[in-house]
Design brief:
7 helices, 3 strands
Length: about 140
């Protein structure tokens, strides 16, 4: 795995858990998704929508020096994708662009989430990281 250390630590925590515990962790992460920065909250039209997700998921990415900063907006009624987004934010925020691009596309598999959520939801999770990488590539 070529995950940044922060993301690797989360993956190891999930791998050590039972499927039931993984869902609980995911819900805890969903409650910790940081709110949008004020400048983005007022201009959500500048964020890109991840259309593969059933929920309204909006993403914005910027570079600060050589570190990537993501902002993700997802309503509380969608805890699964919110939890996953929160994990990706915690695991990838501040990483270098190359570290983000090198992150495996199937982080949700590494976390053991494919066993606990529906395939339709898994597609949305897969798409989210794809959009994050695409936005990083567009900034380089």
């Amino acid at each position: 795995d070529h995950c940044p250390p922060a993301l690797q630590a989360i993956i190891e925590e999930f791998r050590a858990a039972t499927p039931r515990e993984r869902m609980e962790y995911l819900l805890e992460y969903s409650e910790n998704l940081p709110p949008l920065p004020p400048q983005l909250a007022a201009r959500r039209d500048q964020m890109e929508q991840v259309h593969e997700c059933q929920a309204p998921v909006f993403l914005a990415t910027k570079l600060a020096g050589n570190s990537v900063q993501f902002a993700i907006d997802i309503p509380p009624e969608s805890p699964t994708i919110r939890g996953y987004a929160s994990i990706l934010l915690e695991g990838l925020d501040g990483a270098t662009p190359q570290a983000v691009l090198d992150t495996p596309d199937d982080v949700y598999m590494l976390l053991g989430l494919a066993e606990v959520i529906t395939p339709q939801r898994v597609r949305g999770l897969h798409a989210l990281l794809g959009y994050m990488k695409k936005q990083v590539r567009n900034l380089l």
